Structure formats: C-alpha cells, structure tokens
C-alpha cells in the first residue's frame, strides 16, 4: 500500500522514485524547487546539472545552468515564469528565463560583502517578490538581514541584525510573501518564522517550530496557508530524540498549525521519512515537491552510517501527491 502522511483534508501520498533522470545523472543535494504555469518542476540542485526540469510525473525534460552556478540555494518563480536563483556560493541572485537565459544579476559574483556587515551579499539564501514586483533577498549565512530591491535590482532598504530579539536573526534562511505584501522570514536557528510588513516593520512571529528551513506560501488569497520544512536535530546530544523532525508543517495565515507530515521518528531514507527539507513548491493540483539537502546533512544525522547511493542520485527530491 502507498504511504500516506497527514490527516483530514491534508493527506498526501508519497510518490516513490519520482525523478526519472538520464543514465548516470545525480541530483546530489536539491536546495530548492519551483513549479511553473505548466506544472513543470524546476529542480535547483548541487549536481553537475544545476537546473533539472521535469514534468509533473517526474519525466526529464531538459537541464541548464552548467558552469553558471557555484552553489544552489534558493529558487523562486514569478507569475511570468521567471526564475530567481539564489547562489550562496558566489553571493548572487540571478533572474533567469525558463530556458536559462540570465535576465538580471544582483550582487557581484564571488565578491562577498564583509561578514555580518549588513551589506549585500554574504551567502544570500532565498528571494520573494512583493505584489509590485519588488525583490526581497534573505541574506543569510554571512549576514543576518533582509534586503529589498526594485524590480530592476536597485537596493531600496535593508533590515535586520544578528540576535534573538524581534527583527533580529540567527540564520535568515528563507523568505516568502503573500498577496497583501506581508513578508515571512524563516529565522532558522531561532526556531521561528518572523512576519513583517513590506517595509520591514516587525509584526509578529510563529513559534513551536524546529529549525524552519523551507517556506512556501500556498495560494494568493487573503488567508493563505504555508508549508514549512523543518530540519531535525543538529547536535549530537539530541540527535536521536523523537518528534523533532525533519518534517513538514502546514500552518494557516496566523501561524496556527493545521497539519504535520512526518518527523515523529527522526530522519531516514524509508518511505514517509525526510532527510533535510530545504525547499518546497506546490503545483496546480496541490501536490507538494520537497527538495532536501540529504547529502550535506547525512553526517549530522547519521555520523556512523555509510550514505546509500540513492541519496546522491534522486532521494533528495520527493513528491507528495494530495489525496
């Protein structure tokens, strides 16, 4: 029988062996995913073919980005199917067409800003767009802030600093917006999602999360839901503690949890378990695509176990089909 996760209206069937790649290809870590208006799935990964494009059944369509990207991290797609590719290896955001043509580059390749300077970028992580097309960039590992840009890439403002208080960040890892222009930031190592207005004014925060890593706003209405990918334990002392993830949580627009998928018994390659959810996207039918950085995270979760070959090939991409 197929494995099903979730409860009630939020039940999902795990599609095994989803990605069908050309012989000899590997995805390695899948940092992020996006789905276009034709339900084509863009898989931003750290293998030899950084952008792999699949149909909704997992069949290979094409690839691009070879030699273009240093280290895939974030991927966002707009209403016109333009892709915003965040590369934390060379500290840039590239806006690309669906065939890989670079339309805009924000940041100077391979020239990071000083560590924790607040200047863009030092290992930026993700992007999101305002209803007016303004670009928000979470910045990320070597900074602790969010930058706001005009649609053509001119810096408008920056907010945030290291810390644990409201408006401060400890690894600002992902970012999303809704139709009203609210900005949602996955503040990973502070175990929360912070909510801001479009100008960076702190509004509230969502707690009871464990290392929120992936963040996806579902639907463009006034009261959208969000799917949050949570990492499991990152320290040896709590590595085997149950009920800490990795998992997916579905919350409403106020941050109230309405469903949880997996994570009760820790990470694993077994069907129904996750390794390290890092990027999430939904298609037109409500199916969930999960990109995972299982290769990078393997030694954290399984320091004494050899990594199965499947993790490097296709296991870092999962599809959950809505029931």
TrEMBL record:
Keyword presence, Signal: yes
Molecular function GO labels: lyase activity
Residue stretches of each NHL repeat: 128-152, 160-199
Alphabetical keyword list: Glycoprotein, Lyase, Repeat, Signal
The keyword Signal is annotated on this UniProt entry: yes
Entries under SUPFAM superfamilies matching the protein: NHL repeat (SSF101898)
One Pfam family matching this protein: NHL
Protein name as annotated: Peptidyl-alpha-hydroxyglycine alpha-amidating lyase family protein
Organism this protein belongs to: Bradyrhizobium brasilense
């Amino acid at each position: 029988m197929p494995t099903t996760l979730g409860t009630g209206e939020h039940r999902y069937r795990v599609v095994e062996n989803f990605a069908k790649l050309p012989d000899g290809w590997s995805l390695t870590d899948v940092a992020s995913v996006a789905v276009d208006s034709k339900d084509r799935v863009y898989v931003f990964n750290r293998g030899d073919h950084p952008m792999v494009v699949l149909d909704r059944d997992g069949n290979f369509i094409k690839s691009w980005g070879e030699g273009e990207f240093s280290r895939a991290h974030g991927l966002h797609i707009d209403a016109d199917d333009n892709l915003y590719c965040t590369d934390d290896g060379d500290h840039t955001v590239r806006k690309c067409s669906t065939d890989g043509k670079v339309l805009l580059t924000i940041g100077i390749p391979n020239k990071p800003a000083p560590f924790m300077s607040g200047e863009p970028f030092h290992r930026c992580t993700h992007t999101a767009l305002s209803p007016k097309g303004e670009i928000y960039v979470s910045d990320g590992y070597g900074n602790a802030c969010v930058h706001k840009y005009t649609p053509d890439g001119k810096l408008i403002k920056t907010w945030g600093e290291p810390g644990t208080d409201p408006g401060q960040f400890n690894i600002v890892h992902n970012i999303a917006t809704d139709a009203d222009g609210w900005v949602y930031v996955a503040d990973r190592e502070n175990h929360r999602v912070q909510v801001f207005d479009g100008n960076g004014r702190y509004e509230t925060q969502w707690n009871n999360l464990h290392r929120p890593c992936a963040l996806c706003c579902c639907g463009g209405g006034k009261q959208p839901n969000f799917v949050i990918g949570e990492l499991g334990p990152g320290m040896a002392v709590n590595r085997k503690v149950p009920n800490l993830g990795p998992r997916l949580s579905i919350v409403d627009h106020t941050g109230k949890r309405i469903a949880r998928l997996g994570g009760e018994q820790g990470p694993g390659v077994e069907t129904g378990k996750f390794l390290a959810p890092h990027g999430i996207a939904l298609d037109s039918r409500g199916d969930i695509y999960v990109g995972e950085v299982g290769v990078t995270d393997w030694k954290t979760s399984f320091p004494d176990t050899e990594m199965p070959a499947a993790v490097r090939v296709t296991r870092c991409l999962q599809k959950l089909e809505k029931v």
